[in-house]
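Input (structure):
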C-alpha cells in the first residue's frame, strides 16, 4: 500500500539529495537481489535470545537491508499462503509483538555493525550520527529501545527519531499484561498505557504501541498536511489518539511521487507511451483500451474517474 510506495520512492529521493540512506525491513521472501552479508546479531525477544542475519542490496543510491529470521521468512514465504501480518486477512499472528520487537532492535544494530561499501560516496558502517524514520506501529518500539538500551551507555547520543503515521487506524493494541514481552523498563509503561473505548475485540485497558511511538519520538510526522489536521479533529478521525497527537504536535508532509516508477514514457503496464508533448493523443487511446478491458462502452469522450483511497473491509 501507501507505506510500500513511500519506502520505495522516498529513500532514492533522499539519496539524490546527498544523504546516506538505509532502509531496514523484514526479510519476508528470498529476494533475488539481496545477498547474505553473513553478519549476525543476537537480540533478546520475549524470554528468548534470537539470532538475526542481515541481507543487503544497493539500488538507486540506497542500502536496502533485510532482517532475516524464521519469524518473518517461514511465515510468509512458499506454500503457507499466509499474509504478512497474519495467516488470513484480518487475523494477527499470535507473535506479532515479538516479530516487530525483533525488527526494531535489528534496526538499531544495523547502522553500527554493517560495513557497507557499495556507494562510491560513502564507505564503512553508518555509525551513530543518524536519524531514524520509524513508520507506523510496527516500528514504534525503536525510540523506546533507543532510550532504554543505547542512550544510557552513551551510544547514539545525538541520534533522533521521527515517527511517521501512514494509517492511524492500525495502532498495535494488545493486552496490558503483554508489556512484559517487550523487555522495557517500567518507566515506559505509562507511554503504552491505553484505555480502548471500542468494543471490538474487547474494551478496556491495553498497551498501545503507536501511542508509545508518538510520545517517545523527537518528531511526529504524517503523509499530508490535510491528514495531520484530520488526525487531531476528532476522536473518530484520530481513532482515540487525537488528544495524544495534539499534545506532541504533528507535521504533515505530503507524500511525493517516484517519477522513475510512475513515468508514462517507460511504464511497462501501458501499451501507448507518452510524455508532456504527446499526452493529448495518447490518453484517449489508453482510455479506450481500459474501457474495452473492463467491459465498459468504448467511447473516448466519456469521462473516466479514478478514485484513490482506503480499501478495507
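Output (sequence):
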Amino acid at each position: 500500500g501507501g507505506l510500500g510506495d513511500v519506502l520505495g520512492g522516498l529513500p532514492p529521493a533522499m539519496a539524490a539529495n546527498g544523504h546516506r540512506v538505509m532502509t531496514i525491513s523484514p526479510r519476508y521472501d528470498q529476494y533475488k537481489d539481496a545477498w547474505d552479508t553473513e553478519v549476525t546479531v543476537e537480540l533478546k525477544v520475549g524470554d528468548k535470545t534470537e539470532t538475526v542475519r542481515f541481507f543487503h542490496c544497493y539500488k538507486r543510491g540506497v542500502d536496502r537491508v533485510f532482517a532475516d529470521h524464521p519469524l518473518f521468512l517461514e511465515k510468509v514465504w512458499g506454500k503457507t499462503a499466509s499474509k504478512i501480518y497474519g495467516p488470513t486477512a484480518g487475523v494477527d499472528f499470535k507473535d506479532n509483538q515479538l516479530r516487530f520487537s525483533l525488527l526494531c532492535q535489528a534496526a538499531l544494530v544495523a547502522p553500527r555493525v554493517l560495513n557497507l561499501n557499495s556507494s562510491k560516496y560513502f564507505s564503512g558502517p553508518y555509525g551513530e550520527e543518524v536519524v531514524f524514520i520509524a513508520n507506523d506501529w510496527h516500528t514504534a518500539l525503536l525510540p523506546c529501545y533507543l532510550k532504554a538500551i543505547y542512550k544510557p551507555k552513551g551510544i547514539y547520543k545525538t541520534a533522533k527519531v521521527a515517527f511517521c503515521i501512514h494509517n492511524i487506524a492500525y495502532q498495535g493494541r494488545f493486552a496490558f499484561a503483554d508489556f512484559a514481552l517487550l523487555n522495557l523498563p517500567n518507566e515506559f509503561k505509562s507511554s503504552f498505557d491505553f484505555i480502548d473505548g471500542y468494543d471490538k475485540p474487547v474494551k478496556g485497558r491495553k498497551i498501545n504501541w503507536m501511542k508509545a511511538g508518538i510520545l517517545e519520538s523527537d518528531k511526529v510526522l504524517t503523509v499530508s498536511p490535510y491528514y495531520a489536521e484530520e488526525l487531531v479533529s476528532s476522536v473518530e478521525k484520530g481513532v482515540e489518539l487525537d488528544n495524544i497527537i495534539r499534545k506532541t504536535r504533528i507535521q504533515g508532509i505530503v507524500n511525493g511521487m517516484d517519477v522513475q516508477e510512475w513515468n508514462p514514457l517507460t511504464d511497462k503496464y501501458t501499451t501507448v507511451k507518452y510524455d508532456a508533448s504527446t499526452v493529448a493523443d495518447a490518453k484517449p487511446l489508453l482510455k479506450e483500451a481500459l474501457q474495452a478491458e473492463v467491459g465498459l462502452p468504448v467511447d473516448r469522450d466519456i469521462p473516466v474517474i479514478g478514485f484513490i483511497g482506503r480499501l478495507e473491509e
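Notes: Residues 263-312 form one domain. The radius of gyration is 22 Å.
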